[in-house]
Write a structure and sequence with these properties.
The chain is of the alpha+beta class. The protein contains four helices and 15 strands. It is rod-shaped.
Amino acid sequence: MKNLIITIAIVCISAICGNSISAQTGSISGTLTDKINSETLIGATVTLEGTSLGAVTDIDGKYTIDKITEGIYTVKISFIGYEPISEPNVHVKAGSKTILDLKLSTNAKVLKGADVMSTRITNTENAVLADMRSSSQIVNGISSQQISKTQDRNASEVIRRLPGVSIMDDRFIVIRGLSERYNTVLLNGAMAPSSETDKKAFSFDIIPSSMLERVMIYKTGAPELPGEFAGGIVKIYTKNIPDEDFISAGMSIGIRSNTTFKTFNRAP
């Protein structure tokens, strides 16, 4: 009986002390929303300056900070993408709840414009194939990457490899059986002059193969192409500034039928 009385006394004293402590503290609660569209902010941080007390808003944008000693506080709110704010002179009374609803403004910053410049690679095999696939005309081409794998010395030997094209006199072009006068040559986008005095003809052997970036041959017309052709238009693009210094060397050898390695007669 004596032990029961002691236990009841301890419980009563604890309850009285707990109510006394609880009566000396208060709480702050509220809702955080966007200032423009009034949407609730989930995961915003709310802290009391000068204390270790704080809370995080829930899925409804609500927060609650309990067990705050009576006094005046500064409430700080921060959230990613929003301007942090401080709310001073927030009064907390013992045994009561202070409601503090706030709206946050987005942290919008105007960035300076940036110009992005890039150089399109046009001298590779993939670049030429991409141009051929995207073109609405019938076109064949060859790149400097492909030319470097051959032993061609000038543009006439390079163009000879393209389908539907043949070379006459080792320098004049014939496209689809039509001679040089029915074909047009553009050199870096400009009309190439005739190398002959009495006819329209461009001599392709004057351009070394090492100077070629790519060669494109169009066999059908288009609004952006000259109209004065019946066979085809040859677009020749030469290399601009080289990427790096280089030295090239070449050697060629030839034979004459019926004379090389054979005895032959000649005039004294």
